[in-house]
Each structure stands twice: as C-alpha cells, then as structure tokens.
User: Fold this.
Amino acid sequence: MLSAFCFLLQWHTATKLAEALGMSEEEVRFIGLSAVLHDIGKNVPELLPVFNLAREFNDAERAFAENHTWVGVAMLQQNGVSEAIQDMALLHHPK
Ligand SMILES: [Fe+2]
Assistant:
C-alpha cells in the first residue's frame, strides 16, 4: 500500500505538471485526483502481497493484476467518485 508521502508526491507531481501545461484550476484538480486514485484497485488488503512479489506472477496473480483497473472502478463507484475519475482508473494502462 502506498504511504501518505507517496500519495502527496503523486498529487504534487501531477498538479505541477498540469499547471506548467497551462491547464485550468478545475483541470489541475482533476489531474491531481486522477493521479492519486488511478491505482486504487491495487489496495485490496488480501491481494496487496501480489504486487510486492519479487518474482514473476503466476497465471492467477497476473489475472488479478490485470483486473486492478476494474476493481478500482468498482471501488470508486461505491464511494460516489465521478465517472471521469473512474474512466482514468479504467484506462490508465495501454492495452
Ligand atoms: Fe495500474
């Protein structure tokens, strides 16, 4: 699980980049929230060890890892987070 420092670093880095690109205040806030929440689907306590393995994933582990975007969307939906942020969580990995 990421530490509070990691979340703050993600927020800071993303928002400073967005500001440097001339984005509006609303866009900067959206980018910051997206940076912090895009991998929320990895934060399932029973499954976190999968992401800390020092070896290659087996098939079951790989399947979970590849589905963390959908897990994240479900978590965000359950907590009333905007669809735009949900889309960022779902689409942050290239297919
Ligand atoms: Fe991810």
Remarks:
- The chain has two domains: 1-37, 39-95.
- The chain has a mean pLDDT of 90.
